[in-house]
Here is the input.
Amino acid sequence: MANEHASILFKLYCLTVMTLVAATYTVALRYTRTVSSQLYFSTTAVCIAEIIKLFISAGLLVKETGSVGRMLSSIREHVFGSPKELLKLSVPSLVYGIQNNMAFVALSNLDAAVYQVTYQLKIPCTALCTVLMLNRSLSKLQWFSVFMLCGGVTLVQWKPAEASNIQVEQNPLLGFAAIAIAVLCSGFAGVYFEKVLKSSDTSLWVRNIQMYLSGIAVTLAGVYMTDGAQVIEKGFFYGYTPWVCFVISLASVGGLYTSVVVKYTDNIMKGFSAAAAIILSTIASVILFGLQITVSFATGALLVCVSIYMYGLPKRDTTNLGTESSSKSKEKLLAV
Here is the structure.
């Protein structure tokens, strides 16, 4: 009973942290993109987040292997000694790099609450990639929830809620296009990484190191191609404030933490977490940015929350229904 109670408390802890990280990251990123006149380069923030993730993964690999020497030996064997595997992980690195940069573009042009709701389109995108790449099937309820989610997002975008306290120029169409690219990247990269993880017994942290090494190269190339001239002129850390550093830490630590705790929670809890993050982001946007809630936004957000919960419901096992019904009929015949 004590172990079961501890397990429930730990799951609640995981749920709380996942929710707070998702909501706080979205609102804080939106804040940094709308209040400062000296806007930082988002490409450099994404690059620094990848570097932090690399060091954290290396530290966790030390803990897993038991010593620094074993960690270095593991890296030599699986990273530098396996260029094919490193190349394989460069695919999700590139895709995740695009996704993270698109998040900055989207939150520069859309309110945090609108972004949080619309970003849930990653669920149908991931579902489609799972069916195509992992040969899995979805239940009728899951397909229904996918279409409900799309309907909810359509309502949110039909007449988007607007923030009255934002003075900077915004382009909602560009913001929605950025989210569309981000959800496509999220769905493909997540399923691809899962497929790579399940194809061998290599440690999760080794795989993360492989991915983040490629990610650093990809994001540095992004800095050079997108903001190269301005970075040289103004500096790599131009426009950085404590809030920007906070956003980067959430992007790096939050992503790693979520990947660890997800295995201790079920889909229903993850659904509650996503729904709670939407609610918290909406409340924060009303308070901080003067978000004006519309009927279509409220209805769409409610549909999205319900669909997330429905999608996470466990599938009904029908394999034993036939045997159960036949056994019951036999029992009735014997009784007769």
In short: The chain is about 80% helix and 0% strand. Residues 15 and 242 are 27 Å apart (CA to CA). The first strand starts at residue 162 and ends at 163.
